[in-house]
């Protein structure tokens, strides 16, 4: 009986670890501003997620900068396309405000006012996979060029090579891609040494085959990454990331120590409710609370309908709305 209870508990933990829209566990290849949980995307037959964002400064009206993100998924939950806006420029323009007339009488004279216009660029990306569901390339369009990353794997499934290229599209149909000029910007290869059951050493080699960075990755008994320690060999720069998990193997805290841009320590904490839903996220920098995010769910829903981001530094609230389509 005790063995059956343990088995049930293990299955329950495995399910709750996957019962989130977003994936906050460490990932090797990032695909856009948000990381999604492929298991849960597939389970809920989500085809796309659109994220709309506006700002509400304290004591002021809502500001809509036209910020948006859209993610598209295939039928097995993998992200295949996404795009998002980035602020390019802010323009101020004086516009006329017509007079208000009621019953033939002017009750407010014509005037002018200053209007702020937010000019955005849009970044588009496509993701491609092999038969083992591993990412083999991601192509990101910025203006007239594409940043493309190609990946190769070793027999253990670890990334052994990353190739970064700048490419042009010569297809007359701009919704399709036909390779034109390709320029290799960088090439990295990776070697791995299994130091123990819970530790792996990773060597990062440049395009000349010289090691320029090394990493020590530590795991717990469940295979979760506990820490990633990167050190550059030709400088004193380092980056150390630590993870803490709950009993359902969900990240509850992430801490980063780095001197890449001065001595900086950042951390994130995650909280879940009794229904195993993510309800809050807090971001710190050098132990100062920068922002708090609250996730809101419609009654009976398992995916968030919106989230509110309290920005303490800029004294504003970011309001985010999630819009879904389904298979």
Query: What is the rounded Rg?
Result: 24 Å
List the secondary-structure elements in sequence, H or E. HHEEEEEEEEEEEEEEEEEEEE
- By secondary-structure content and strand pairing, the structural class works out as mainly beta
Largest sheet: 18 strands, antiparallel, barrel
Q: How many strand units?
A: 20
Mean pLDDT: 89
**Uncertain parts:** 1-17
Q: Number of helical runs?
A: 2
Q: How far do the termini sit from each other? A: 40 Å
The helix content, as a percent range, equals under 10%
Strand content: over 45%
Overall 3D geometry?
globular
What does this molecule look like?
With 327 residues, the chain is mainly beta. Strand 6 and strand 7 form a beta hairpin. The protein is 7% helix and 60% strand. The chain has two helices and 20 strands.
What brief labels describe this structure?
20 strands; mainly beta; two-stranded antiparallel sheet; 18-stranded antiparallel barrel
Topology, element by element:
Blueprint: H1 2-18, H2 38-43, E1 46-57, E2 63-73, E3 79-97, E4 100-102, E5 105-108, E6 111-129, E7 135-142, E8 145-153, E9 159-169, E10 179-196, E11 199-205, E12 211-219, E13 225-232, E14 238-245, E15 251-258, E16 264-272, E17 278-285, E18 288-296, E19 306-311, E20 316-326
Short description:
With 327 residues, the protein is mostly beta strands.
């Amino acid at each position: 009986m005790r063995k059956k209870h343990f088995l049930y508990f293990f299955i329950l933990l495995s399910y709750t670890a996957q019962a989130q829209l977003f994936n906050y566990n460490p990932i090797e290849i990032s695909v856009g501003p948000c990381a999604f949980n492929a298991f849960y995307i597939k389970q809920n037959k989500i085809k796309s997620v659109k994220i709309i964002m506006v700002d509400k400064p304290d004591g002021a009206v809502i500001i809509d900068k036209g910020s948006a993100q859209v993610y598209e998924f295939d039928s097995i939950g993998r992200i295949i396309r996404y795009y998002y806006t980035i602020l390019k420029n802010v323009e101020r323009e004086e516009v006329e405000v017509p007079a208000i007339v009621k019953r033939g009488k002017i009750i407010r004279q014509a005037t002018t006012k200053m209007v702020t216009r937010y000019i955005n660029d849009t970044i588009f990306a496509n993701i491609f996979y092999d038969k083992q569901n591993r990412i083999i390339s991601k192509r990101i369009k910025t203006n007239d060029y594409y940043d493309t990353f190609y990946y190769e794997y070793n027999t253990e499934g670890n990334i052994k090579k990353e190739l970064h290229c700048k490419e042009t599209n010569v297809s007359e149909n701009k919704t399709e891609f036909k390779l034109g000029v390709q320029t290799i910007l960088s090439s990295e290869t990776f070697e791995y040494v299994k130091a123990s059951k819970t530790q792996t050493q990773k060597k990062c080699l440049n395009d000349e085959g010289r090691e320029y960075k090394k990493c020590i990755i530590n795991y717990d008994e469940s295979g979760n990454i506990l820490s990633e320690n990167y050190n550059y060999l030709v400088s004193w720069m380092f980056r150390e990331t630590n993870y803490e998990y709950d009993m359902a193997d969900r990240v509850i805290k992430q801490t980063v120590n780095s001197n890449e841009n001065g001595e900086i320590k950042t951390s994130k904490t995650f909280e879940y409710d009794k229904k195993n839903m993510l309800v809050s996220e807090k971001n710190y920098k050098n132990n100062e609370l920068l922002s708090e995010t609250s996730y809101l769910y419609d009654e009976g829903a398992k995916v968030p309908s919106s989230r509110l981001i309290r920005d303490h530094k800029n004294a504003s609230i970011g309001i985010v709305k999630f819009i879904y389509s389904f298979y």
